[in-house]
Amino acid sequence: MKLEKPIVIGIAGGTCSGKSSIAKILVEDLDNKTITIIKEDDYYKDQSHLPMEERVKTNYDHPLAFDFDLMKQHLHDLIDRKTIEKPTYDYTVHNRSTVTEIIHPSDIIIIEGLFALYNEEIRSLEDIKIFVDTAADERFIRRLQRDVIERARTVESITNQYLTTVKPMHDQFIEPTKQYADVIIPQGKTNTVAIDLLKTKINSIIQEKML
Fold first, then answer.
1. What is the model's pTM?
2. DSSP label at 66?
3. For residues 78 and 5, what is the distance between their CA atoms, to the nearest angstrom?
4. Could you tell me the domains of the chain?
5. What is the pLDDT of residues 139-170, one digit of tens each?
6. DSSP H helical segments within the chain, as ranges?
7. Which one, of 203, 62, 193, lies nearest residue 128 by Cα?
């Protein structure tokens, strides 16, 4: 039996807090349901009109970098059981990729990203709102390792970006969204107690929404 209405779960938190890891854990646990993960990064605004030297100056940790209007429309469509054509983002060119992704309706929609709890309209669509609360020093170390290994960046450039934009934007825009969370998960995926409680809540909502 399918759900009358998809369950929408928002997972927010600072950079490298463990948002993606928790989303993957939920997908593995709910493998009897169709699940869509919407990565907020894919909704960075199109910058085709800007030269590369201008694109690299974009503050990607500010809410103005995101196309929330398109994201809201896509979420409404998915909730209405409509298929969407989702953009994808190419970090190497600091712009949307020419490749899009066809997303079909599913029973569970997981929104994962820095600002998953920021936009009021998107937040109103979420049945469960989660904030992954990981210590700043641990998040910085994870980001440093990721960007050096996966994005071939220098330690200097990563550190400079973190101090000038990532941390200030986190303090101004992301940390305050913790107040909207139904569930706060300290230590990310290692907090198995909190994650087990979350799974129990999701399963109870599934039972309530079954036709």
1. 0.92
2. B
3. 10
4. 7-209 (3.40.50.300)
5. 999 999 998 988 778 899 899 999 999 999 99
6. 19-29, 52-55, 68-79, 120-124, 136-150, 155-161, 167-169, 192-209
7. 203
State yes or no: pLDDT of 75 exceeds 80. yes
Identify the CA nearest to 112 among candidates 57, 41, 32, 176.
Answer: 41
- pLDDT of 9-42, one tens digit each? 999 999 999 999 999 999 888 877 889 999 999 9
Mention every residue, 6+ apart, whose C-beta is less than 8 A from residue 175. Answer: 14
User: What's the N-to-C CA distance of the chain in angstroms?
Assistant: 7
Residue for token digits 């989702």?
A: 86
Q: What does the alpha-carbon distance between residue 142 and residue 16 come to, in Å, rounded to a whole number?
A: 6
Single-letter amino acid code for the residue at 100: T
